[in-house]
Amino acid sequence: MRAQAHFTIKRGRIALDLRVLRQGTDAQCLLSGGDAHIGAAALAWLEADGTQSRLACRPGHREDEIALHMAQRLALGLGCAVCVSAGIHFDGITREEIRLVEEMAETLGGQCLEFFSGGLPA
Known about the structure:
This protein is of the alpha+beta class. The protein has helices at residues 64-78, 95-115; strands at residues 4-11, 14-23, 26-34, 40-47, 50-57, 82-89.
C-alpha cells in the first residue's frame, strides 16, 4: 500500500488539491487551491472520550473551519492523529464559490477515507 496519496477536484474556476503523507502512524495533509499558502493548520487526534483538536489560523484567513473539520473527520476515519494545513485563495471569490469550496473539500476528505479504507499503510 502507498504511504501517500494525491486527490484533486475542479469545478469551473475552482480547483482544490489534497496531498496526504504518512508521518509515522499519523497523517499530514496539505489542502490548497488557487494561490496556495498556509492560512490555517488543524491537528486532531483520538482519545478515549472522543476526538481532540487544536487550531491555528493566520489573521485575515478563513480556512480554519475547513481545516478543522477535515482533520477531525480524517482522524476519526483513519484512527490516527491528522494535521491539515490549508491555504485556499481565489481572487474575487463569491459566496456561492465559497460554499462550493466547502463542498469540494468535503468530497476530497471522502475520497481520502475511501482510498485509505483499510487504514494508513504501515
